[in-house]
Specification:
Elements (H helix, E strand, L loop, with lengths): L1 H30 L3 H12 L2 E7 L5 E7 L3 E8 L5 E8 L2 H9 L1 H5 L3 H12 L3 H9 L5 H12 L2 E8 L6 E9 L3 E8 L5 E8 L8 H14 L4 E4 L15 H9 L1
Parallel strand pairs: 8-9
Antiparallel strand pairs: 1-2, 2-3, 3-4, 5-6, 6-7, 7-8
Length: about 260
């Protein structure tokens, strides 16, 4: 009789363990953000229309493809906490294509004399100018990302190419620590030199428009010296700029 009681108690314990395991699995699965929530969050932040939503290979994140009038985004969103893990931004070329197709008729109506003049102008380009074009070849976006990562570490967030400067510059935003500390690394797009690093503290989850935020950081980067630190304070309504510091000061603090 005692042996039977022990067997019954053991069986009950196994059944209870299985039930608890099923309950934990169902709860953990229920905590993941759903596809509709991802759609609403991404559309609210970036506007435009969602073209496609898929999962990463490990199934832990969503990959959302979205486009508005100016830009096309590929955004990786964590299923667990809805955090933005990666953003790839491309200039939307649809308008440029429409403009090009609309001007096709005018191009076809050019006179033979105008074409001859243009061809003559092309022939007259000297070798010095051609050599300059070779010299001005830009480094790739991947090379710029690697340079930024080598300077500050962390995780890639956003990249833009500033074509209004000479030389042209890549502006790369890196998430350096947790969810609230990052760096804007300015890289010479010709020779790959890291020109300036702007450190900042801001809640990445509260950034609704990453393009606007990137432009704001670029403005600060042109105003302040290398390794300047800015603390964005949503409560005060201003940028909350802190004091600048150089690498020697930072190294001294590490030694202490």
């Amino acid at each position: 009789m005692k042996r039977l009681n022990k067997l019954l108690i053991a069986a009950a314990a196994v059944i209870a363990g299985i039930a608890i395991g099923i309950l934990l699995i169902s709860r953990s699965g229920g905590d993941n953000i759903g596809e509709e929530e991802v759609r609403a969050m991404v559309t609210d932040r970036y506007g435009g229309e969602i073209e496609n939503i898929s999962h990463t290979e490990d199934g832990q994140s969503y990959i959302v493809t979205l486009a508005n009038e100016e830009y096309r985004y590929e955004i990786t969103v964590s299923r667990e906490d809805a955090g933005i893990e990666d953003i790839i931004t491309e200039k939307n070329e649809d308008r440029s294509s429409d403009t090009a197709s609309g001007s096709g008729e005018e191009t076809s109506e050019e006179t033979s004399e105008e074409k001859s003049s243009e061809e003559k102008t092309d022939v007259e380009k000297d070798s010095g100018q051609q050599e300059k074009e070779k010299t001005d070849t830009l480094i790739t976006e991947d090379e710029a990302k690697n340079i930024a990562s080598g300077e500050v570490g962390g995780q890639f967030v956003h990249l833009t190419l500033n074509q209004e400067t000479h030389p042209q510059q890549y502006q790369i935003i890196q998430l350096v620590e947790d969810d609230d500390e990052g760096a804007l690394v300015t890289v010479d797009a010709i020779d790959g030199e890291a020109m300036n690093i702007l450190w900042f503290q801001a809640d990445f989850n509260e950034i609704a428009d990453i393009e606007a935020f990137a432009r704001q950081l670029q403005e600060y980067s042109t105003q302040y010296q290398n390794n300047y630190y800015i603390e964005f304070d949503d409560d005060s309504g201003d940028d909350g700029s802190g004091e600048s510091y150089d690498e020697d000061d930072e190294n001294d603090n590490d030694d202490d």
